């Protein structure tokens, strides 16, 4: 087993200006008076590594830096200091249905979203029926997305997204959508990924799910790595402190 | 541009194409006349301009209708490509903040949409070519190369604009003004020879002017493309893309935070 993700001394600092200068005019006039920045140290010295095929949980309160960490792992944000090394392809599920277009039909959106998630046109062609069926909306394939309920949209997005063959999967709270039955289906798919040896980073507030699925976990609090280790202990620590 | 980056873009070709196609389709989807609407627009503009310029200003240009139409279609491409490129990053905050792919894909697909629209509009132009029985020569085979150079120029400009627009939102208003001035500084309605010699020489450095000269020479006038113009177009397109790409890649890492 080799580490497929290595996070070394990772820092992320956001500089949030008190007043945002968004135009050339403001920038020029603003040269006279200094800008005040709010420094937000979103991640402070994070260190961990994840082995291939492991399911690794990240927990912590809102604003503890979980999403920032995932975004850095997905290359959306760049680290201020330190590094994240990934040795396999990273597939982030940070939000479902990114790039969905309401003027297009369900089938067309499967195509658009599938490509964004990294499927090939051939994959999509072969799997469109399966995707629509898994989402339970086969009879609405030519209905425009704007006429779908939000639940149907999310189901469609998830069904499309799981068709990707991820090597490292980053999940940010995406399972907290849909009804009971659909959530059960989602967890089954996760189990399948696990069996297939996909490395999964699982960010969730659902501590029971984290305990059930993750071998190890990381607890963040205000950007500080509080604890990392066996999931039961880490969750225990979190519950004890919170 | 690094070779590695070009390879990465090639791996994402499906995404470029899908994003361009979505935009193209969406443009026409909600209008009653659909795709034909986009053919009416250049036709209408052509009629108005033709009436004004051929009668009032007595412009002496061979095949003036086609001269005008080709100018309008090609200028529309540049104006649309850069206007869409300008919004490529700030118009899609979701894609920038929630998924990873090389960000210039958004700009490339924006310019590709503009190109699709212009190719579509060219149907009218081809119709006119047939109607007026303009003879074609073998020189027409250079046209795709000229269009490619034009695309590169539009792409380079769009990259710089898209990146700067993330930081300075008034770029879009400034660019709208530049386009308005550019329309008259480019031989669309008239050849540049209508200007006094000094202004003529200055305006000849306008890359789009040279592109238009080249394109008209090979389509309307059965001429061999002017070597000086062609070399200038090649050099200037590489320079513009280089500058645009440099600005873009400098600013790119912070896009997700700035939006």
Can you describe this structure?
The complex is a heterodimer of chains A (242) and B (259). By secondary structure, chain A is an alpha/beta fold. Chain A has 8 helices and 9 strands. Chain A has a 6-stranded mixed β-sheet, with helices on both faces. In chain A, strands 2-1-4 form a 3-stranded antiparallel β-sheet. The mean pLDDT of chain A is 87. By secondary structure, chain B is mainly alpha-helical. Chain B has one domain. Chain B has helices spanning 3-11, 13-29, 35-56, 64-86, 93-98, 104-131, 143-167, 171-184, 197-203, 207-219, 227-251, 255-258. The chains are: A alpha/beta (242), B mainly alpha (259). The interface between A and B is medium-sized, with 28 and 26 residues.
Distinctive features:
heterodimer; A: 242 residues; alpha/beta; Rossmann fold; six-stranded mixed β-sheet; three-stranded antiparallel β-sheet; 36% helix; B: 259 residues; 75% helix
What is the gist of this entry?
Chain A is an alpha/beta fold and 242 residues long.
Map the helices and strands.
The complex is a heterodimer of chains A (242) and B (259).
Chain A (H helix, E strand, L loop, with lengths): L2 E15 L6 H7 L6 E15 L3 E6 L5 H8 L7 E6 L3 E4 L12 H11 L4 H14 L15 H12 L6 E5 L7 H16 L3 E5 L3 H7 L2 E6 L2 E7 H11 L1
Parallel strand pairs in A: 3-7, 3-8, 5-6, 6-7
Antiparallel strand pairs in A: 1-2, 1-4, 8-9
Chain B lengths: L2 H9 L1 H17 L5 H22 L7 H23 L6 H6 L5 H28 L11 H25 L3 H14 L12 H7 L3 H13 L7 H25 L3 H4 L1
Helix content of chain A: 25-40%
Secondary structure: helix percent of chain B = over 70%
DSSP summary: helix tally of chain B: 12
Mean pLDDT of chain A: 87
What's the CATH C level of the domain at 3-89 and 202-241 in chain A? Alpha Beta
Shape of chain B: globular
Task: Name the chain pair whose interface involves the most residues.
Answer: A-B, 28 and 26 residues
* Beta strand % of chain B: under 5%
Number of DSSP-assigned strands of chain B = 0
What is the count of helical runs of chain A? 8
Rg of chain B over CA atoms, rounded to whole Å, is 19 Å
Strand order of the largest sheet of chain A: 5-6-7-3-8-9
Q: Runs of chain B with pLDDT <50, length 5+?
A: none
């Amino acid at each position: 087993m080799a580490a497929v993700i290595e996070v070394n001394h990772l820092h992320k600092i956001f500089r949030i200006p008190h007043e945002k200068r968004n135009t050339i005019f403001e920038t020029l006039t603003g040269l006279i008076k200094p800008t005040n920045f709010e420094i937000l140290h979103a991640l402070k010295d994070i260190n961990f590594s994840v082995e291939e095929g492991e399911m690794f949980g990240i927990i912590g309160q809102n604003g503890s830096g979980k999403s920032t960490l995932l975004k850095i792992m997905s290359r959306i944000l760049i680290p201020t200091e330190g590094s994240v090394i990934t040795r396999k392809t990273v597939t982030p599920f940070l939000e479902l249905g990114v790039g969905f277009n309401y003027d297009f039909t369900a089938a067309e959106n499967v195509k658009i979203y599938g490509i964004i998630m990294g499927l090939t046109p051939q994959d999509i062609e072969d799997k469109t029926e399966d995707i629509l069926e898994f989402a339970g909306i086969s009879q609405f394939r030519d209905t425009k997305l704007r006429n779908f309920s939000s639940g149907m949209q999310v189901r469609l997005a998830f069904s499309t997204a799981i068709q990707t063959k991820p090597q490292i999967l980053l999940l940010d709270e995406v399972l907290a959508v849909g009804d009971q039955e659909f959530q059960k289906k989602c967890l089954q798919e996760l189990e399948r990924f696990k069996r297939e040896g996909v490395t999964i980073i699982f960010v969730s507030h659902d501590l029971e799910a984290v305990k059930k699925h993750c071998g190890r976990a990381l607890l963040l609090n205000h950007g500080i790595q509080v604890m990392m280790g066996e999931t039961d202990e880490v969750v225990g620590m979190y519950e004890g402190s919170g | 541009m690094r070779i590695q980056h070009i390879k990465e873009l090639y791996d994402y070709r499906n995404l470029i194409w899908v994003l361009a196609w979505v935009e193209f389709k969406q443009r026409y989807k909600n209008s009653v006349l659909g795709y034909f609407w986009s053919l009416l627009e250049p036709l209408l503009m052509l009629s108005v301009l033709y009436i004004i310029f051929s009668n009032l200003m007595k412009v002496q240009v061979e095949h003036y209708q086609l001269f005008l139409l080709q100018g309008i279609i090609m200028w529309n491409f540049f104006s649309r490509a850069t206007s869409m490129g300008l919004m490529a990053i700030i118009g899609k905050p979701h894609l920038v903040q929630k998924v990873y792919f090389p960000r210039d894909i958004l700009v490339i697909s924006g310019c590709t949409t503009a190109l699709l629209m212009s190719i579509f509009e060219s149907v009218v132009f081809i119709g006119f070519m047939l109607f007026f029985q303009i003879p074609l020569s073998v020189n027409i085979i250079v046209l795709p190369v000229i269009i490619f150079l034009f695309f590169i120029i539009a792409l380079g400009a769009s990259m710089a604009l898209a990146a700067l627009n993330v930081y300075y939102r008034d770029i879009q208003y400034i660019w709208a003004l530049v386009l308005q001035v550019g329309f008259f500084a480019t031989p669309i309605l008239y050849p540049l020879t209508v200007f006094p010699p000094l202004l003529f020489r200055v305006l000849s450095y306008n890359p789009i002017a040279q592109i238009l000269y080249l394109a008209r020479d090979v389509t309307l006038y059965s001429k061999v493309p002017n070597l000086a113009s062609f070399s200038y177009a090649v050099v200037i397109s590489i320079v513009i893309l280089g500058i645009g790409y440099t600005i873009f890649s400098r600013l790119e890492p912070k896009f997700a935070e700035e939006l």
